[in-house]
Design brief:
There is one protein chain. The relative contact order is 0.14. Helix 12 links the parallel strand 8 and strand 9. The longest helix has 25 residues. It contains 15 helices and ten strands. It has a single domain, classed as TIM Barrel (Alpha-Beta Barrel), CATH 3.20.20. It has 337 residues and is α/β, with parallel strands linked by helices.
Amino acid sequence: MSLKKRFMDCLTGAGDEKLCGCTTTYGVVELMKLCGHERPLADTDPVAMTELALAGPRYAGFEWVKGMGWDITAVSEVLGCGLGTPEIDRQYCIKEHPCAESLDALDCPDDFLERGRFPAYKEHLRMLLEKVGDEYAVFGETEGAFTAAGNLVGAEQFMKWTFKAPQKVQQVLEVTKHAVIQAVNFAFELGVDYYVLAEPTSGPALMSPKAWEKFVFPVMKEIVEAAKGPIVLHICGNTDKIISLMCETGVAGISIEEKADMKQAVEIARPKGVKVFGNVSAATTLFSGTPEESYRESMAALENGADFVTPGCGIAPLSPLENLLQIRKARDDFRRA
């Protein structure tokens, strides 16, 4: 049975095999050096993007493959956000918020998928899926609607609006929701197996569970219902208080950081038919910890019930490859135990 079949069986509930990989970003410098394709070219060039995607399984032991680049700004860029300049160890980031002062510029262009990096993603996904065939599952990823909205307005201002101007929040979300649905189904129509929506701006450090339920939940639910394939929702921070809400959006899986309680998340998610990805610390352990620490955290995630053992968030570019390999080693040892 192919890894793709095993992965999709686990994601959709037909299997319970433990798999390992990364379900956010892995633009890691060591992987770039090994595959011979570095950023910033790998952010925009379909060939370089494809080869770096394949470096995950080839060199880090990942059992599925990421498509669509190494950051979560592509939707926001098309909607008008200015981006910083990427480097080999620095991904694209938001530098300009076009709706900070006024919503007059708020718009989702009719040719959304013909702008920004989406034409490059189209060619990249064609190449990647051709190379992968039925061997690996492939996923696409962008920011979610709430994070895109925060990028357009500025996160601090947007959070203030949830209290002072909720009508403006809804106005922006209506546009970003429409854009995200286009991005999601663009990827599914090209052949990806699942899609990750990253919603760091909706994390518990910025939003209360009550606000999350009011503003994020209904939009996520609409996106999931409109999606032509399974969605995995990633949120940073300690998401313990919103795990149930995350699962009730209709997603196939949730991705959580080390600050969240994996055992509790699994106990909540499993009866709802939702799988859990995580939660080895990307910011500390995989980036600056030892291989032994990376192994222990990976094993702990498995022992606490993770369906897919992964970094808790996007992997920092300068993380040592040896630390990443401990995820696979822990999973293999867990199977043998």
